Amino acid sequence: GASRVQTYLGLLFLSHRGQIRLRQDELFGDLWIQDPAAVTGSDEAVAD
């Protein structure tokens, strides 16, 4: 399996290309991954 660093670098690459959106509300907080096509006018993410 991929290491955490490899996964993180892959996410940064996809974000840079505009294929995903990344959001982190606070330093060392949860990293939210969003599909840019699925994001509506509201910029809120909901987690259970």
Mean pLDDT, as a whole number?
A: 86
How many strand units? 2
Total domain modules: 1
Helix content: 25-40%
| Major β-sheet profile | 2 strands, antiparallel
Strand content bin: 5-15%
- Using the CA coordinates, give the radius of gyration: 12 Å
How do the strands line up in the largest sheet?
Answer: 1-2
Unreliable spans: none
SS class: alpha+beta
What's the shape? globular
| H and E order | HEE
Count, helices? 1
Roughly how many Å apart are the termini? Answer: 27 Å
Can you offer a commentary on this structure?
The structure is a single chain. The chain is an alpha+beta fold and 48 residues long. The chain has one domain (4-37). It has one helix at residues 4-16, and strands at 21-23, 32-34. It has a two-stranded antiparallel sheet. β1 and β2 (32-34) form a beta hairpin. The relative contact order is 0.16.
Short note summarizing the structure:
This protein has 48 residues and is of the alpha+beta class. 27% of the residues lie in helices and 12% in strands.
Architecture blueprint of SSEs:
Blueprint: H1 4-16, E1 21-23, E2 32-34
Antiparallel strand pairs: 1-2
Which descriptors would you attach to this protein?
single chain, 48 residues, alpha+beta, two-stranded antiparallel ribbon, 1 helix, 2 strands, 12% strand, globular
